[in-house]
Amino acid sequence: MDRVQNNGKKTKRLRNFFSHGIAEAGCDEAGRGCLAGPVVAAAVILPAGGFRHQLLNDSKQVLREDREKLAIYIRKKAISWGIGVVDNVVIDQINILWASVKAMHLAIDQLTVQPELLLIDGNRFKPYRQIRHECVVDGDAKFKSIAAASILAKVFRDELMQHLDTEYPQYCWDRNKGYGTPIHKSALRYFGVTPYHRMSFAPCAARQLELTF
Questions:
Q1: CA distance 55 to 44
Q2: For 48-78, how does the pLDDT look when each residue is reduced to its tens digit (9 = 90+)?
Q3: Which residues contact 62 (CB under 8 A, 6 or more apart)?
Q4: How many Cβ atoms sit within 10 Å of the Cβ of residue 29?
Q5: Are 47 and 79 in contact (CB under 8 A)?
Q6: What is the DSSP string of the chain?
């Protein structure tokens, strides 16, 4: 069955669970493609009786104001939720894929209820302890728990980048959240890199190389 979101597009109805009768934690990350700042992941266990909110969807499809409302509702209604943060230094050390996985592990660590299944957005993951996991491509558009995790991760990271913007306002992180927008790249060329930039990412590495020679 289709439903109409607030952006007017039709999307498939999100599924409550992958397997019924067990505690499932949906996991997703935010900030994977940014030039600056950390990658943030969330893990969410939703109620066994189901979870309903008409705005719930992949965070990329939800307006900022609605994401913030949803985050409050999810934190209130979830059985348990957790946030994991991996900074740009570690991202440069282990690469963004495994930093994203590490952030998910840290988020799962915060859960007060041990899940019996981990639903992971994407196609790569490292096992967490002895808990079974399922990777789901575009999972945030398929399962409610992953969509909820995407909302919490996005809202948390956006707030963090707004805070970092007060240190380096010339990069406009309050608006671009560290993504490689034209304004961000222009500031990078003019002002150089900050301690929060990901030096393993091409635009940052190229700018640092220019400053070295």
A1: 17
A2: 887 888 889 878 888 999 999 999 999 999 9
A3: 6, 55, 70, 151
A4: 27
A5: yes
A6: -EEE-TTS-EEEPPBS-SSTTS-EEEEEEE-TT-SBS-EEEEEEE--TT----TT-S-GGGS-HHHHHHHHHHHHHH-SEEEEEEE-HHHHHHH-HHHHHHHHHHHHHHT-SS--SEEEEESS----BTTBEEEEETTGGGTBHHHHHHHHHHHHHHHHHHHHHHTT-GGG-HHHHTT---HHHHHHHHHH---TTB-TTSHHHHHHHHHHH-
pLDDT at 148: 97
- Name the β-bridge partners of 157: none
**pTM for this prediction:** 0.91
Give the Cα separation of 145 and 96 in Å (integer): 23
* 175-186 pLDDT, tens digit each: 999 999 999 999
In which residue are the tokens 């990069």 written?
A: 171
CA angle (38, 197, 34) in 5-degree steps: 55
CA 105 → CA 98, 170, 211, distances in Å? 10, 33, 36
Q: Which two tokens stand for residue 52?
A: 């309903």
What percent of the chain has pLDDT above 90? 82
C-alpha 204/C-alpha 179 separation (Å) is 12
Residue position matching structure tokens 């307006």? 63
